[in-house]
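Amino acid chain:
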Amino acid sequence: MLNKTVQMIKKKIMKRILFALFAVVVLGIAAVKADNDKIINKNQLPAQAQQFINENFAGVNLSYAKEERDFLSRSYEVMLADGTKLEFSSNGTWEEVDCRYGEVPSAVIPDPIKRYINENYQGEKVLKIERNRSNYEIKLSNRLELTFDEDFNIIDIDD
């Protein structure tokens, strides 16, 4: 009786070990597939991303465009010849504009944020703007980082 109980316990342990190994293999394959980045042409970007680039960075050559595939999502990264880095969501909505050697075009910055910067940091340039579902993050030329909520209220200032 004791021998049968020990055998049943061993079988359960073996099943769990095999399941765990199977799970590790599946997750490993998924991780390899998730990092499936590929270089693309400008015309392979979503139409909204192409329009954004044409309207805000006309005349600036594209260094590269990359489609980044994660496990369940897709995004795009674009590097322009002037050092500007752009990030777009799967549908082509801009998520980040990082102008390392210049400033973010005024048309990209929402008016309430522009007004706040002009009133409180006159003369400073916006070097970077990021947006997500809940906020906007701005980096100024004086290296201050401002965070605004979705209603454009300032919620954080970091130096």
